[in-house]
Amino acid sequence: MQLENRAELEHFCSLLTEQDYPNLYTAFMKNAVAKRFEPGEVIVFQEEILQRLGYLSAGEAEIHLTSFEGDTIIAERFPPGSLLNAPRYIDGKGSPADVIAVKPCTVLFLPYRMLRSDSILDAETLRLAAHTTAVLYRLTEKVYRAAMLLPLKERIIHRLFLLKDENNSVDITAEKLASYLGVSKYKIHRSLNELEKESRIVNTYGSVTLVE
């Protein structure tokens, strides 16, 4: 499941290609408005109705879902190449989540009115939005399946695998990991200690390394 999820996320951030969407790709590269976001800055607010399509050209952003009671869970982390606000091009609904920069981000924006004014651009954008929505559904399905079927320690390993760098390390606190998994940080602390005793991770303050 870990490899499958990572492959799905890598697929998501490589959807917009010059080969598959030549006109839309060119529009992003030549006509888009670039905006920079610092870590912690909100790129898209939950329920916000934007009239533009976004392309994360640099940096990383987290997807935060907040309940009516104010509880927040981090659903995913988007790498460069991810598309923002694509499903709205189809259904016109507001964003289902906050999109928050975790590293300095550059986002390229194209207004919907420009995309819809050109029949070729409109067709490519609709096709890309549908593809993006399908991939997001698959990602959500896998996150839900992991949450429902896996024990907490395996969910932790699963999430760390998705977030790890080339050195198998993740810069993350127990509190942030708890937000990803929707449990208390105390349960995370206990599980991390158990995983370290089992020699599956090396846990230091603010960083976790997976042991192969």
TrEMBL record:
CDD domains: CAP_ED
Domain Cyclic nucleotide-binding, first and last residues per copy: 35-116
Classification via Pfam families: cNMP_binding
Domain of life: Bacteria
SUPFAM superfamilies (UniProt xref): cAMP-binding domain-like (SSF51206), Winged helix' DNA-binding domain (SSF46785)
InterPro entries listed in its UniProt record: cNMP-bd_dom, cNMP-bd_dom_sf, RmlC-like_jellyroll, WH-like_DNA-bd_sf, WH_DNA-bd_sf
Protein's UniProt name: Cyclic nucleotide-binding domain-containing protein
Organism: Photobacterium rosenbergii
